[in-house]
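REQUEST FORM: STRUCTURE PREDICTION
Request ID: SP-0412
Submitted by: Lab K.M.
Chain count: 1
Length (residues): 339
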Amino acid sequence: MDAGDLRLLLDASSDIHWMADCTTGRLLYVSPAASRVLGWEADRIDAEATAWLADLPDRLARFASGDAALRTVRRETELAGRDGALPVEIESTLVEGAGGLRLVGVIRDISARRDAALQQKRFASMVSHEFRTPLATIDGAIQRLEMTHRDADEATKKRYRKIATAVDRLLAMLDEYLSPDRLADIGRARQDTHVEPATLLEEVATKARERGAVVTVRATDVPAKLRCDPPGMRLCLEVLLDNAIKYGPPGATIEIVACKASSGGIEFSVADGGAPIPADELGRIFDKGFRGSAAAGVPGSGLGLYMARSIVDVHGGTLTVSNLLESGKNFRIWLPIAV
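STATUS: Completed
RESULT:
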């Protein structure tokens, strides 16, 4: 293949090929694909090429000192194309030729690659969610059975533990093979399925305080670790705090408490000093889309409390609400965790 054939090959390629003189930093060649792919005119190509070569002096100095890893460099970035930002991969290699040291490069459009990766991540997320929800339900039910049937015979207890172990194994497999993060970062550690109750309360309280709310936190006689879906429980508490802020009087204290439940298990409560819930609305407060009389003029969809109860349900627990004797109301989460 002679030089003419090689030039024809580069000119016809869908990738953008280019070459620069390392001594002068001058662009020697850019294939016509730059105009086809990016819509650039000749003057735009020269201006953009200057940016491609900005790190050339430092790269040459380090290469001359023996850093062989800089002979070929590959990076992903975005270039301004005719239809907006275009994701590309730029690969360049230092090559010694008859005319001296040259920097030879290729720019590849990686839009299709990124779209495929995004679709793969979305699919993995959907499959992971569809499996994780029923597994969380099973896990919550088993924890509840273990707590409420402590006097069961040894064979029954063994079956409970066998089911719980199987659930843990399936969750581990989801994290290992179907987690979107796993696809993006092979070798990462499994997602934690435990949370420190006291830390959890402080995290949600801090976020509420950033909105100007007055929040007190109290955690007594609770385990150091709680087995659950940490993001789910965090979201549940954030929903309850959000409601307390929106429907309570400005500056009123909101109290969040974690403690051992008198009937066994663990409970979290969020109490505020806002107006009580009308008696005829108490039974509907967690219904999907329901908004009580206090919601008039307050933005919302009526899905927050419904979602919060759904999260607690899959953990095998309960979420209830009651009006306080003097003023305000108290939301109580109960989870079947041995304390």
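NOTES: The mean pLDDT is 80.
Reviewed by: T.R.
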